[in-house]
Amino acid sequence: MKRFFAIIESPYLRALLIGFIVLSFQTTLFNTLRPFSVVMQVMLLCSAASGVAAGSESGAIAGFMFGFMYDMVLTSPFGLSALVFGFAGYMAGGVNTFAYSPRWWFKMLSVGISSFAAVLIYPAASLVVGVDGLLQTRVIGVALTVGLFNAAFALPAFFMMRWALVKSKKQLLWAE
Amino acid sequence: MVLLLTSVLLLTLDRSDSGLVGGVKDAFGVVFRPVESFANVISRPLSNVWRGVVDYSDMRKENLALKDLLVKQEGAAIAATASVREAQELLALNGLPTLAGIDSVTAQVVGQSPSNFTQTFELNRGKSSGIRVGMTVTNGAGLVGKITGVTLERSVVMLATDPQYAMSVKVGACTRPNTTTTAAPSSSTTLAPSGPSTGDTMAPGDGSTTPVLTVPPTTTSTTSTTTTTTVLQRATTTTIKGFTPFATTLPPVPGGGFASQITVPETGVLLPRETGAMEGQGIDRLPVIRFIQTSARLGELCAGVPVVTAGCSQSLAPADLVVGTVARVITRSGTSGPLLEVELAANLQSLNFVRVLLYQPATEIPQ
């Protein structure tokens, strides 16, 4: 029973459930809202926010999970989003460690930069696995838009992912 | 490092076309679909507000333009339907395959790819309706794309503008107003020695229009000891009074007072066509046709000529399916040949219902 509760309390299970809900909004609401004809990438936002909230390693794992779920609904090569989103989570955690005690704006900056980089890397990575034609000049505009959007919504995503991935002191005491 | 290796493993599994990835995606779809439907119900009001704010003025303009276009098309559609029916009857009479003989399934677009890179749509019909990977998807206007993934009740369509999309197509030479080029049978035609000369007129069967055919002095005579034959040159220019080839004015639409222009090929004249490969170029860019070779036989390539599917033995699409029209001809130096940009007939931005042609080439049908 204790093991069952431990599984339920697992940060990654929480992240998985959050990913499931976020994915459902990614394929419905955010698929409709297309400012400048660009689809907002909330799964990528959550991946980057995971890195900022829980560090590079946890960010990479959470990002990989989110990317894996995203791959399930895409027709692009399976595992490509997992790879890129994992990188985004890792990078966001890495950028965030540049500041000793990062302020709110630095968290936003970390999420924005890593999202921008991830969108640029995606077509390049797809080229490596044999899918050409995606690397166009339009990608820069898409990356900028996604980066700005993700930076703008970084703080709510950060709090959500911190709740999922970082155990509070009360939870730690209860677990003992 | 573990995550990196796992990604590489997944990519390898995906590229090796094993059924494992498809099975996992299908299972995920079964679990995810109810959640997605719930999210759709919740988010619909927000989506509608967004559309109302962003798209309202465009929608209004588009609505007015469409009404105008509809009136113009009504007359042309009647004449076109008659022509298509006649063509299908002729093809059937000669034992040739026609589009009318291909079964199809009507499906509704229920989803769109959330990615900024792939251009796919999801349909509410799948394997249970007979849909298979590779089948061609059209709408009332023309080619839309092809099926790239199928589950029991859903299928995924890759749009013709996707960079991964390719299709063999036929494109014809452009027409010249008031003049047509006719090819006479080479040496088998024997005419009277006097032949038509300048100013001679011939009235075709239709006495109501009485068009005048003028043949310039392009005939040459060769005389031998036994017979006298007149062989027409391979190309003659005809000018028909009161008749503009390839543009026929229809009678006014009752009550509308409107005359529409449709293109009607001249009797007995077939335009030369060249086959090329059409490839998608991504969002906001027109597909292009490559591997077209300019030759004297093909004639001049220009914007506006129709593009249809070639339908060769291994093509996924049947022949003569409307794709669109040539929007721009990009001439290239050397032997690379021209590049043709294609304006698709189907509007891929506003797809609702589409038709999946249950057509598979012989090479794709499992034995």
Task: Explain what this protein looks like in three dimensions.
The complex is a heterodimer of chains A (176) and B (367). Chain A has 176 residues and is an all-alpha fold. Chain A has one domain (2-175): Arp2/3 complex 21 kDa subunit ARPC3 (Orthogonal Bundle). In chain A, 77% of the residues lie in helices and 0% in strands. Chain A is built from nine helices and no strands. The two termini of chain A are 14 Å apart. Chain B has 367 residues and is α+β, with helices and mostly antiparallel strands. Chain B has a domain at 181-243. Chain B is 24% helix and 26% strand. In chain B, the strands form five sheets. A six-stranded antiparallel β-barrel of chain B has the order 1-2-5-4-3-19. A six-stranded antiparallel barrel of chain B has the order 6-14-15-18-17-16. In chain B, strands 7-11-8 form a three-stranded antiparallel sheet, with no helix packed on it. The longest helix of chain B is centred in the N-terminal third of the chain and has 75 residues, at 19-93. Chain B is globular and about 60 Å long. Chain B starts with a helix and ends in a 10-residue tail after the last strand. Classes of the chains: A mainly alpha (176), B alpha+beta (367). At the A-B interface, helix 2, helix 3, helix 4, helix 5 and helix 6 of A face helix 1 and helix 2 of B.
